[in-house]
Amino acid sequence: METIGTYFAAEYRSKGEGRLLRGFMLRAYSHVAITAMLLLVLGYPLAALFGEPGRCCRPLAAGRC
């Protein structure tokens, strides 16, 4: 993301369009923050569905685990 930000910073600075750059960076970092929040909010409950660590999902009758 830094490479893209650096490219657009130089591009918009040369054209004198700093307002567009600020809007672009705000949207880019907002997308990252929203995705991180979704992973945290949805990830923990979904991870609990995997069960207890070290427990085998197959029945013990299979002879392995």
Structural account:
- The protein has helices at 2-15, 18-48.
- By secondary structure, it is mainly alpha-helical.
- The radius of gyration is 23 Å and the shape is rod-shaped.
- It starts with a helix and ends in a 17-residue tail after the last helix.
- The model has no long low-confidence stretch (mean pLDDT 79).
Question: How far is the N terminus from the C terminus?
Answer: 43 Å
Number of helices: 2
The radius of gyration is: 23 Å
Quote the beta fraction. Answer: under 5%
Average of pLDDT:
79
- SSE order: HH
**What's the number of extended β-strand segments?**
0
Helix/strand-derived class?
mainly alpha
Helix content bin: 55-70%
Low-confidence stretches: none
* Bulk shape: rod-shaped
Largest sheet: none
Describe the secondary structure blueprint for this structure.
Elements: H1 2-15, H2 18-48
